[in-house]
Amino acid sequence: MTINLNSLLKVIALTAATVIAPMASGAKKTSVAPELKEAREVRALINKVNNQWQSTHKPEMTPFWHNAAYHTGNMEAYHLTGNPDWLDYSTKWAEHNQWKGAKGNDRSKWKYNYGETPDHVLFGDWQICFQTYADLYNILPDDRRIRRAREVMEYEMSTPNNDYWWWADGLYMVMPVMTKLHKITGNKKYLDKLYDYVIVSDSLMYDTDTGLYFRDGRYVYPAHKSANGKKDFWARGDGWVFAGLAKVLKDLPAEYRHRQFFADKYKKMADAVVATQQPEGYWSRSMMDEEHAPGYETSGTAFFTYGLLWGINNGYLNDAKYLDAAKKGWNYLSKTAVQKDGSVGYVQPIGDRAIPGQVIDRSSVADFGVGAFLLAACEYVRYLEKNMNTDRAYWAGLAWQMAEPVLRNMSEGNLKKNMLVEVSPNWDGRNKGVTYMETFGRLMAGIAPWLSLPDDDTEEGAKRRQLREWALKSYANAVDPENPDYLLWRGHGQALVDAAYVAESFLRAYDALWMPLDDVTKHRYFEEFTQLRRVDPPYTNWVLFSSTIESFLAKAGAEYDEYRINSAIRKVEEWYTGDGWYADGPEFAFDYYSSYVFHPMYLETLQAMKDAKASTRIHYHNYYDRALKRTQKYSIVLERLISPEGTFPVFGRSIPYRMATMQPLALMAWYEKLPHGLTNGQVRGALTAVMHRMFDDKENFNESGFLTIGFSGRQPNIADWYTNNGSLYMTSLAFLPLGLPATHPFWTDAELPWTSKKAWSGQPFPKDHHWGDGAKIRDLW
């Protein structure tokens, strides 16, 4: 049974079909969805505006705030479009400034009050440039790109001062620097100081009643009032803060202890922003007093529009009022602010407040206004195109193709009856009933994140909801001894392996797939998982199957075997060979078991123990942080193994697991932990290319719709003695990024060349190097 791209996309039946239908040979032109038409118009406007700015302004400008704010927008436009000229523009700017802000070198003279001298190194207006330097570092890692940023910020954090952000603008200038550098370095001090500094900022200028910020201490009500005696909130000042909070939330780790503080602040501010919008869609310079400084203003409006759209796209702002406000803001930006020549007008000049009588017109342009416009426009494109991404449609179509026959049948108790089973020519004679447990457990471990996404009214959402309903019934049937599809939990050792994948699926979708199960089913899982302690795992990756099951039990609040978890951790540590590779036991084997088992199950064991708040000799947090770095390094290796043509080396046992080879790379994308040097666009492009090479027009599915034994098509000769076609559902483990929403940059950023493509076409590409393992971690007692 062959699988074809166009038929696959019809299966998923996404709105994207209006985009790709003309790709079929001889296809007639189809009507264009309104969202797609508007998205094309917005993309054209982005091109017009940014090209107009760059064609009339050389990149060799200072790194001071107004230029640097433009580059934050330019980098967003680059990620969305992949335009290499725009990347080159920001790179030239950074090179011109020697990857520095203020250039003073005598630390004893460094200041953070307002100033434009080389000694104002600690003043945030000279630090916003570090945002773009960090972005450029993530594309092409080179220590000199962030050396000065780290020197300045780490010196600043070493001082006892905590009032560095004494004006509202500074929260946009520097808050995202802290999160970006934390993401690169892993230094938790960036997050600690981020919170400390914001608390002081709040004490200086935050209005708890509205959730808005006065520009600085000079403008706090009632000492300062607007023309009509109201609180005077300056639109651009609050726009800086609102956009900065969106950027911070984008990069904050999910487990960050103060994340909710920032989320709550952002959402409260969003309500105040919506409440103060003018009917024409803009925000007046004095947000609560239009008469104070009447008329259009673009920079604050653009920042607010960006911040609202980001929250809508990322699930923070779900009420219709936010979308209405964002669309009104965009209507003003696109119809009024942008001029015929592509310039962005009605930008209030550099200042610190809403100034009565100040004239602002269509010729009032500024670099930071263009940057703010680009941020808003890019986020609007992400909103418009969320259901029209052809790569996502292809991935979702493949996932459906694999999952539908399994879950539809199993939910009805018919999997064993209807699955067309294939086994290795060298089959060892074990009970073929293991096939069904392998099929179900491995499939669910791969698609669990996808099924965790909230329901929506898209075609993909409908299919996802259907799969989830089938999956929940299948979970119940799997442990019901009276059901025909009760799995083969007992009587053999192989059950330990695939029970671990079932447990892994619960860990990956705890709220969506474990919590809805009824108490009887949960009790049955506890019983089946516990009885597997009868299996003595071989001295190999199997120790992680035990630890994954036991750590899930710990997270779920059941009795667990601490020894099976901690002994597995110690063994895995002994078997780490360096640079991301694990040996499968005492001897190193050149295969992909670091992909299939070691990296994901080791991380998930440690995370589950953290979630369980378990107190044992093992410091799970420290072990997790180190294991994560190893997985990031291994992800770099995997990405480099993908050829320009979308192939990767075929070696080692279990190669029919197909895409499971790429699981750690997919895992890092889903975790939003891709290492520097790997961008969303290049990783999605690389993985999609591999999927096309592996699945398109190949006999990967048999006549009953189940996977065939092979690597790229039907190739039964490569099967190992333990391989059945249920084993092959491991390939779903590369589909983890489907758990990211359709508006996530993984899906919306432009496809970019991956490392081998760059290397073999003469483009710059990141150097590779050894990654050290850090200090030894000792037991807690």
TrEMBL record:
Whose protein is this, by species? Answer: Heminiphilus faecis
The record places domain DUF2264 at 391-754
* Official protein name in the record: DUF2264 domain-containing protein
What residue range is the signal peptide? none
InterPro entries registered for this protein in UniProt: 6-hairpin_glycosidase_sf, 6hp_glycosidase-like_sf, DUF2264_N, Glyco_hydro_88, UCP014753
Q: Which UniProt keywords apply?
A: Hydrolase
**Top-rank taxon:** Bacteria
